[in-house]
Design a protein that fits this description.
- Helices cover 94% and strands 0% of the residues.
- With 64 residues, it is mainly α.
- It has one domain.
């Protein structure tokens, strides 16, 4: 029973983390859009790196 509860709590935590990552991804996409409009190469590079980190984390969560 204890193991079942731990597994259930883990899945809930993963769903919450995925939701937070999606919100973070939406924000970074908006920042990237602004950076592209402003032609700010430094900011564009930073946003792309953050988006790549988010993408990898989301892929890791779905692999579990």
């Amino acid at each position: 029973m204890k193991q079942l509860m731990n597994t259930s709590l883990k899945k809930v935590g993963e769903k919450q983390k995925a939701a937070v990552l999606r919100l973070e991804m939406d924000y970074e996409l908006a920042v990237l859009f602004e950076a592209i409009e402003e032609k700010d190469e430094k900011k564009i590079k930073e946003c792309k790196q953050k988006l790549e980190r988010i993408r990898l984390e989301l892929m890791r969560l779905k692999a579990l």
